[in-house]
Amino acid sequence: MNPPGLRSASPPPAGTPWRAQLHEIIYEAETPAGKAFDVALIVFILMSVAVVMIESIPGVGERYGSPLRVLEWVFTVAFSIEYVLRVICVKRPWSYMASFFGIVDVLAVLPTYLSLILPGSQSLVVVRFLRLLRIFRVFKLAEYLREAQILQDAMVASRRKILVFFMAVLTLVVVIGAVMYLVEGEQSGFTSIPRSVYWTIVTLTTVGFGDITPRTPLGQFLASIVMLIGYSIIAVPTGIVTSEMTRVQGRRVSTRACPSCSLEGHEADARYCKHCGASL
Predict the structure, then answer these.
(1) What is the phi/psi pair of residue 267, to 5°?
(2) If you ran DSSP here, which 8-state letter would residue 13 be given?
(3) Which structural domains are found in the chain, ordered by start?
(4) Fewer Cβ atoms within 10 Å of its own Cβ: the N or the C terminal residue of the chain?
């Protein structure tokens, strides 16, 4: 008996192209072969990130640098082959290559090759950790996929409102920064308008590094106003995204990947890809 949630691995029908079989293994998580491939991939990702992190430890990198670098190249070659196979087995390679995971997959192998020209850049391979987002699909956590899709749709739907809000905040910090530069001056550390804008951003976001502080009563009064505005501003983008999340809730998504463009996150009853229109 197959484990719950897995389809039986029946032989493909006669005439099925090898690309379709490869796509089922690499992109689908509902078959034993697909699940095994993705679990092995996740183990490789964790091991490769661990190698890079261990190599950065003083003393360990000096003592075991050579074997660790060999391991890193083994992982890089394996991920490079996997990326090529992913491109080959989809009908529209450019759709996959331009997708979020396609870009992440390239960035996962690029730093190691760049290290041949720029020593030390291999530390950037920790971006491979982003590939672990596939874990929601691998282990059939459909509820998590649905929530992730809701969040993604809400962010996309609210992007124009957030952009307008960001431009308003940018205008505000420039104006306040210029005012603080005139009020406080160089003697208080506000040596230029850009530095004053930096102080405004730090204060408005309630970070408060304290490397620059107003000393005059007027400057301190303005700083208090900026702090109060900061608390109000933080709530605005949260409200925008929350309202969009409420609007898009209720959709059910599946773990299926489009055989043409590799897009995931389709609705459970979808028969065609919402991006390229290919049959699911």
Answers:
(1) -65, 155
(2) P
(3) 18-140 (1.20.120), 157-248 (1.10.287.70)
(4) N
